[in-house]
Amino acid sequence: MKKAIFAVLLTLLITVMAACGASGDNSKDKNAAGDSLWSSIQDKGVLTVGTEGTYEPFTFHDKKTDQLTGYDVEVMQEVAKRLNLKVEFKETQWDSMFAGLNSKRFDVVANQVGKKDREDQYDFSDSYTTSQAVVVTKADNNDIKSEGDVKGKKAAQSLTSNYNDLAKNAGAEIEGVEGMAQSFQLIQQGRVDLTFNDKLAVLNYLKTSGNKNLKVAFETGEPQTTHFAFRKGSGELVDKVNSALKDMKEDGTLAKIAKKWFGEDLSLIHI
User: Which overall architecture, per CATH, does domain 131-224 show?
Assistant: First the structure.
């Protein structure tokens, strides 16, 4: 009887040790994959970055030169420069952005990405911008002045955006769109009532476009930080990018880029 009990206990012990070993191996595999990714990028000398190219003032094309520019673009260019890498941007619609990252079409996403509800699936850099959500309506709309007025109204939102969650939580009926420009178009056409979007992007658009048909109805939600997004297990690449961001914060480069685009330092990095 004692021998039988001993045999059972021994079997259980071996099983537990094997499971622990497997867990350790998985952790080692993830670390090795992250190190391998960084080594591969170093060998190529190129960091491949997913970005929209249509989200002014963060990532868009200059009307005169047609060159890709914007706050996120400049920050990522400076990061790559400090890592002794060239940067190659691959323009992708927002709703396809994470599919592109998952399929290894690019190494990182630079597109004002919030990490809420995504941390289990992706790695993130330290934050490099802090902003807040606003609600945009037609200029002559006097019915929507606060979040309580949103319930039952139609909101144009990118379905994979954090702003879509804000709209749904406020009780809006959602009309899916590809980006901010389409949201504004639908509002002006009277097909929807509003859109939730980033305050900085909206103010920049209203300032540069001279569009008098739209207005900011109100600010809402908690201030949000934005981050560069990576595939889970990107390891050393994330560490290198964070190191570059930290240096840019400390030497004033990040603040300089932010002031160029927004007139103030938005680069609240957690060091």
Answer: 3-Layer(aba) Sandwich (3.40)
The model's pTM is 0.66
Phi-psi region of 202 (alpha: psi -120 to 50; beta: other; left: phi over 0): alpha
Per residue of the chain (271 residues), give pLDDT as tens: 545 554 544 555 455 455 555 445 544 555 565 678 999 999 999 999 999 999 888 999 999 999 999 999 999 999 999 999 999 999 999 999 999 999 999 999 999 999 988 999 999 999 998 888 999 999 999 999 999 999 999 999 999 888 999 999 999 999 999 989 999 999 999 999 999 998 888 887 888 788 999 999 999 988 888 999 999 999 999 999 999 999 999 999 999 998 888 877 776 544 3
Locate the domains of the chain by residue range: 36-126+227-262, 131-224
The CATH architecture of the domain made up of 36-126+227-262 is: 3-Layer(aba) Sandwich (3.40)
